[in-house]
Structure formats: structure tokens, C-alpha cells
Design goal:
One of its GO terms (biological process) is fatty acid biosynthetic process. By secondary structure, the chain is α/β, with parallel strands linked by helices. 32% of the residues lie in helices and 23% in strands. The structure holds oxa(dethia)-CoA. Oxa(dethia)-CoA binds next to helix 2, helix 6 and helix 8.
């Protein structure tokens, strides 16, 4: 069995900065409420015709590939995590295969695990590399939320939180099994599926034919719904559990963590975890202040920034953790 290591990281966010004050012109909200409850100061929104989930994923991927020091045609497989694909189908994995101009007809897989999507995608890629099936896998997390949010006061408890962006990693075969991804831990609890969800359009409760026939401007099923406090309570519990689970599986202690990259759901959640585990500011990376919650993109964007800023060095123990819609949650323990 091999290990896999992250050999290249990249991220891309749209230029268009949307501040809390900008949102207060669209809905009844204010900078003080948003900062106090979430820590968010601003986020990025795509500009129509410029960026999509796929194009942002491709831009992040190109940086990651260059930094990995490989050619794009060395990539053996693509795993793309998103809840906001360009098309209902096909998923964005194949669009990346096309838009990167890959000469080989490599496989492309789409992962739909929302906020924990990147960790699920990383775990899938890790298994393919461990078994020796593939050598280099491109893992992308990318989201466009802004085009699907209710930007009126009705939607304010959700709309102020989410932002757009993309992050990518190249996973490469590592012969030294003391390095790279040591383990990943994935969970779900489907009984809470609707607590953080977007119901329509779907082939279950809100058929496309019904939506067209109803043409109801008050239909909220197209917008994301979140039972915020319930999600918050579950998040702090599951984040803690899955971090401890990952550490235990590798005989590590909380004090062994050099860098924790939590999914950027809410700065208060990150701060709760930091306090609970008594981690210093240098041991936890947060950037939700600048980008909001970018769902599957949040972990790879934060990981890329932490690495770019020299906060992750060779030999460090890096912990990734995420929780979100599904509910799904997961962690990855990495020896850098
Ligand atoms: O990434 C996936 C995982 N996601 C999470 O983990 C998110 C978890 N949840 C949260 O982060 C928080 O629950 C939120 C940030 C979403 C909301 O914060 P909260 O402290 O739970 O607020 P709330 O929903 O209980 O609302 C409190 C008040 C309400 O007013 P009343 O009923 O007390 O008069 C809301 O109507 O704040 C009001 N409110 C707002 N006010 C100004 C809700 N959204 C806004 C807003 N601006 N944007």
C-alpha cells in the first residue's frame, strides 16, 4: 500500500467583493449583526458571464497542478466536490477534463457532500492512490452560491453567510508511509437531511414540471433552507468528535496538532473548537471573515492560504475537519 500526499494547492475567488454594508442595501441586515453572529466581513460573488463553479475550479486546479510540478496530462483521475454544479447534469468533473484540455480520457467523479465535500473527495482520491490504481489525482472543491440565494429580507439568515470560490489539490503517490494522508474519517446522519437543504428542482418532492406549472414567485423551495441553531449545535459536537476520532486513530493528542483547518461555517464554531481543544491562534486557520462560507471550497481555500503564508511546514500534523448538510461530516489527518 502507498500513501498519498498533497503535492500542489491552489485557490481562486472572484474579484467582486460584497461587503456586509452592500448586503444591507438589499435586505434588512447590518454589519454588526453579521460580524457578531458569524465573523464574516465580506464575501466574493461571481459576476454573470465571468465565472462559474467549473471555471473557478479549473483556475484553482491550474495553480495546484503547476505547484505540484506535474503536467496536466499526468493527472490520472478527477474528483470534483460541489453543491452548485454548472449543469444539473453532467457534473463538473467532466467539464474540468474538457476545459483543462486533457489529452487522456481519464475518469471524472462528482461528489455531492456539501460542506464536507472536499474531505469526502480527498478520502476517495486517497483510497485510489493507496491501492496503487492512480498516481496523481486532481481534487477540486468549488461553489457558486450567490446566483441561487434569496437576496431579500426573507432569506437573510442564509444569504449573508455564503460566498463563492474554489480550491484545488493534487494528490500524489507517496512511497514513505509515515507521510501524507494518515487517515480520513467520514460520517453521515441522513435523518437531518432537510435541516440544511435545497429541495427544488428535484425528482422527489418538487418536479420540474410542477415548478413550471405553478410558476409561483413565493415558492421558497428553490432557495437553500437552514435551521441555523440546530445545525450550529450539531456542528460543534460533530467537529469535536471527528477531530478526536482522527487523532485517536493515529495515536496523536490534541497537542500534536500543528494546524487545524476547520470548514469555514461560522467563526463562532471555529472559536468554540479552538477553545475546547485549547489551541493557540497559530494552530487554527480561519478566513471566513474574507470569504464567508464557501461550502466544499472552504477547506481547500483555507488550506491553500495557510500553506502560502508559511503556516504549514514539512513534518507538521495538519487536521482538516468539516460538517454540513446531510448531515455529513469528516476529518483528514495529514503528516505534511
Ligand atoms: O456550513 C454548513 C454548516 N452551517 C453552520 O454550521 C451554520 C450554523 N448556524 C449558524 O451559524 C447560525 O445559526 C446563524 C449565523 C445562521 C444564525 O445565527 P443565530 O444566532 O442562530 O440567529 P437566529 O437565526 O436565531 O436569529 C436571531 C435573530 C432573529 O430575529 P428575532 O426572531 O430574534 O427577532 C432573526 O430574524 O436574528 C435575525 N436575523 C438577522 N438579523 C439581521 C437572522 N438573520 C439576520 C440577518 N441580519 N442577516
Amino acid at each position: 500500500m502507498y500513501h498519498s500526499r498533497i503535492s500542489g494547492l491552489g485557490h481562486y475567488v472572484p474579484d467582486n467583493i460584497v461587503t456586509n454594508d452592500d448586503l444591507s442595501k438589499l435586505m434588512d441586515t447590518n454589519d454588526a449583526w453579521i460580524q457578531e453572529r458569524t465573523g464574516i466581513q465580506e464575501r466574493r460573488h461571481v459576476v454573470k458571464g465571468q465565472d462559474t463553479t467549473t471555471t473557478m475550479g479549473v483556475k484553482a486546479a491550474q495553480v495546484a497542478i503547476d505547484r505540484a510540478g506535474i503536467s496536466k496530462d499526468d493527472i490520472d483521475f478527477i474528483v470534483f466536490a460541489t453543491l452548485s454544479p454548472d449543469y444539473y447534469f453532467p457534473g463538473p468533473g467532466v467539464l474540468v477534463q474538457r476545459d483543462l484540455g486533457l489529452s487522456r480520457t481519464i475518469g471524472a467523479l462528482d461528489v455531492r457532500n456539501q460542506c464536507s465535500g472536499f474531505i469526502y473527495a480527498l478520502s476517495v482520491a486517497d483510497q485510489f492512490i493507496k491501492t496503487g490504481m492512480y498516481k496523481n489525482i486532481l481534487v477540486i472543491g468549488s461553489e457558486v452560491h450567490s446566483t441561487g440565494l434569496d437576496m431579500t429580507t426573507r432569506g437573510r439568515s442564509v444569504s449573508v453567510i455564503f460566498g463563492d470560490g474554489a480550491g484545488a489539490a493534487v494528490l500524489t503517490r507517496e512511497e514513505d508511509t509515515t507521510k501524507g494522508i494518515l487517515s480520513t474519517h467520514l460520517h453521515s446522519e441522513g435523518q437531518h437531511a432537510e435541516e440544511l437543504s435545497l429541495i427544488a428542482p428535484g425528482m422527489g418532492k418538487r418536479w420540474v414540471t410542477d415548478i413550471i406549472a405553478d410558476a409561483d414567485p413565493n415558492d421558497e423551495s428553490y432557495y437553500p433552507y437552514m435551521n441555523g441553531q440546530f445545525v450550529f449545535k450539531n456542528a460543534v459536537q460533530r467537529f469535536s468528535e471527528v477531530i478526536v476520532e482522527g487523532l485517536k486513530a493515529n495515536d496523536l493528542q490534541v497537542s500534536d496538532i500543528d494546524m487545524l483547518i476547520p470548514h469555514q461555517a461560522n467563526l463562532r464554531i471555529s472559536q468554540f473548537i479552538q477553545q475546547k481543544f485549547q489551541l493557540s491562534d497559530n494552530q487554527v486557520y480561519n478566513n471566513i471573515m474574507k470569504y464567508g462560507n464557501t461550502t466544499a471550497a472552504s477547506v481547500p481555500i483555507a488550506l491553500t492560504e495557510a500553506w502560502e503564508q508559511g503556516k504549514i511546514k514539512e513534518g507538521d500534523t495538519v487536521v482538516l475537519a468539516a460538517f454540513g448538510s446531510g448531515f455529513t461530516w469528516g476529518s483528514a489527518i495529514i503528516k505534511w
